[in-house]
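Reviewer 2 asked us to include a model.

Predict the structure of this chain.
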Amino acid sequence: MLLRTTSESVQCTSTTAIFYPMTQWLPTINVLRLRVIVALVNKSTNLSVQLAIQTATTDTSSANAPVALGAAITTVGRAFRDIDVGNVNNGEVNSHMWCRIGILAASSGSTVESGNVSLTPSYRDSM
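Predicted model (structure tokens):
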């Protein structure tokens, strides 16, 4: 199932990644894989972004910390990610009720870094 493409302006000043949610919370029942196109444009020098998934067991207001998926993106362009979300290293959605997809943004320096990210997510379920 293809989800809506979303865009976000990201900004950070630290090597500690900031999570930017890019989808609504989705029920995880029967979700097998995620396929996502991440586009990065208008990026400042030290910005890197990384696809991430955040899960919640029962209550989305008590969500788990986001889990990075795949390598960081450090250059302008598009990246394709195909993720087995049942894997424990990829968020393991099977043991949670909810998930949402987003971007972790970080800077390799101490200056303000920014860029624009768009995300085109889709997922395959067992139905």
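The mean pLDDT is 86. The domain at 6-125 is CATH 2.60.120 (Jelly Rolls). We have added this to the supplementary material.
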